[in-house]
Amino acid sequence: MSAPACRLVDVAYAYPDGTAALAGVTFDIAPGEKIAVIGPNGAGKSTLLLHLNGVLLAAKGRVEIDGMEVCRKNLGEIRRRVGVVFQNPDDQLFCPTVREDVAFGPRNMGLADGEVQGRVRSALEVVGMTGFENRSAHHLSYGQKKKVAIATVLSMRPSLWAFDEPTANLDPASLRAVEAFIRAQEDTVVVVTQDLAFAARTCGRIVALEEGRVALDGPLDGILSRPAELERLGIDFSRQCDLCEKIRGAV
């Protein structure tokens, strides 16, 4: 049997001020699986995401990507395999032009210039940003920045995508574009979100965190059939109930 795309075993983490963020998180993600990590503010969702590519390292337990431990000696390869799209694209875009932002990762992989430029063209075409190569990302709309941020990860060709609150602050057109991109991926995808309807439209499995622990974990249809537990976790199920029921019926 092949290794899980991602494995977390008893992962615990506390911030320097002593605040416990994760407290024994254990679950596997299969290759090609799309999962949504949901839960209230402070549940540990974003902290968990940052463990997938080694931005944070577990204080206890173990995180593996394709059977490789996420630890300091493996960070170069881990970050090639795991692409994180941050909630705020301004945290991801720092070069003078869009072209340089998208080329940054492949260049740091040591690829030849021709390969780098080919990846830049391909990534921008996929996200619909061809023609913006020489623009500064800071002069783009928020939705355009989000697309460029996705392109910076796409140019690295990761095997696992990690999205932190991908729907935050997006206009409807940009939201549809991001949703379509996630749905089209054949790679493994982890989406941290509080938008249950978006999770239902894009992912086949839901993991709910509460106070740094796994409170619920299961297929979309099973989790959506437990509204009382979702509402206890601070997920506004009732407001999105009709939409979620329609999605459930289509699963």
Poorly predicted runs: none
How many helices?
10
Give Rg in angstroms.
18 Å
Look at the structure and give the mean pLDDT: 91
Count of the domains:
1
* Terminal CA distance: 27 Å
The run of helices and strands is EEEHEEHEHHHEHEHEEHHH
Q: Could you list some keywords that capture this structure?
A:
251 residues; alpha/beta; Rossmann fold; six-stranded mixed β-sheet; four-stranded antiparallel β-sheet; 10 helices; 10 strands; globular
In short:
The protein is an alpha/beta fold and 251 residues long. The protein is built from ten helices and ten strands. Strands 6-7-8-3-9-10 form a six-stranded mixed beta sheet, with helices on both faces.
